[in-house]
Every structure is written in C-alpha cells, then in structure tokens.
C-alpha cells in the first residue's frame, strides 16, 4: 500500500480505541497485528491464507475484518441499480422512472453480499463482486476471511458468519444523493 492510500485509510484508527477498551482488562498484553489489503488477486489471497491459517486455527487469536459496504453516488463513481431487487436485473444507472427507491436497491445489493458471506463461499463472493462491482472497501479482506473459514464451514450445517446490523448514511432517492452502507457481523469458530 503506498503512502497516499495509507494516509487516506482510517479503518485501523477507528477501531484502535475499541480494541484497547475490550482488551484493557484481559490481564495481559494483547498483541495486535494489523494486516491491510488494498489490492490482491486469487493467487495472493490463497498464498496469504496458507500463511495465516495456523494463526486462524489457534483459538487464542481473534481476526477482525473491518469494512463498510456500498458507496453509492456519482461522487463514488457507482450508481448501479436493480429495479426489481434482483441482481440479475442490475443496471449501471437508474432510469428516470424508478420502480423501487434507490436506497432499497442499495440495500438489496448489500443484503445479497451479506447472504453470500453468511454461506462462507469464497467463490460465490468473488462472483458477486465481479457481477455487481459493489464498492465494498474491505472486499479483499472479506474474501480472505472466507478462505480461512472454508474448513470450518464445510463441517457445519448452519451459517457461520452472522450479520446483526445494517444501516445507510442516507436514504438515496435521486442521482444527486449519495450514501455509504454499514453492516456488522461476527463469526465464532
């Protein structure tokens, strides 16, 4: 990650006070190892997974992935829209006559991503990202997490990643508006 990208990145700075708070009373020092991934391909993700797997399998470790979801609006260069709520109907730009509000379309995009992540399917998530080009900042780390979890998910029937919150910064109703979506989820292995 180059210096400009690093200076623009705020995720770690946002989470450090929280991490400090929850680990402060543990009784021992907790090591935090930030891993920031801004670009990768499947080869890199699979190689990194191999290196991280022993740490992931060690129950004394916790992995935290931080991301927001869809950044929608002209200023984000992303205005894809699904008039029916179905991804197969996704278009690059909404027409002037909307079948559903734009904020509902955004929610459909994000909910589809969370549903796929809940299954733990790395391949399905990669396919989703290719189809929608959704502007999920942490798509690369999320894909890496799904790769790490594959062994555990294949041995369970229920979903492993559970989402327990979703919000949008604003309700987009026109092309002049913009919004950033946020989801919260967890997995216990």
Automatic annotation (TrEMBL):
Superkingdom of origin organism: Eukaryota
Listed Gene3D superfamilies: LigB-like (3.40.830.10)
Signal peptide feature range: none
InterPro entries: MEMO1_fam (IPR002737)
Cross-referenced Pfam families: Memo (PF01875)
Similarity-based family: Belongs to the MEMO1 family.
PANTHER family per record: PROTEIN MEMO1
Protein name, per record: Protein MEMO1
Native source species: Pichia kudriavzevii (Yeast)
């Amino acid at each position: 990650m180059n210096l400009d990208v690093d200076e623009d990145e705020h995720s770690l700075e946002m989470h450090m006070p929280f991490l400090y708070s929850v680990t402060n009373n543990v009784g021992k020092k907790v090591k935090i190892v930030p891993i920031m991934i801004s670009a990768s391909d499947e080869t890199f993700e699979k190689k990194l997974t191999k290196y991280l797997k022993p740490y992931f399998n060690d129950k004394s470790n916790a992995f935290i992935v931080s991301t927001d979801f869809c950044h929608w609006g002209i200023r984000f260069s992303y205005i894809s829209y699904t008039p029916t709520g179905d991804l197969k109907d996704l278009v690059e730009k909404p027409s002037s006559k909307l079948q559903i509000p734009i904020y509902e379309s955004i929610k459909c995009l994000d909910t589809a991503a969370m549903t796929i992540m809940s299954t733990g399917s790395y391949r399905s998530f990669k396919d989703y990202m290719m189809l929608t080009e959704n502007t999920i900042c942490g798509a690369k780390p999320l894909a890496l997490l799904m790769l790490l979890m594959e062994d555990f998910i294949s041995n369970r029937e229920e979903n492993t990643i559970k989402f327990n919150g979703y919000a949008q910064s604003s309700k987009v109703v026109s092309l002049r508006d913009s919004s950033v979506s946020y989801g919260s989820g967890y997995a216990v292995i």
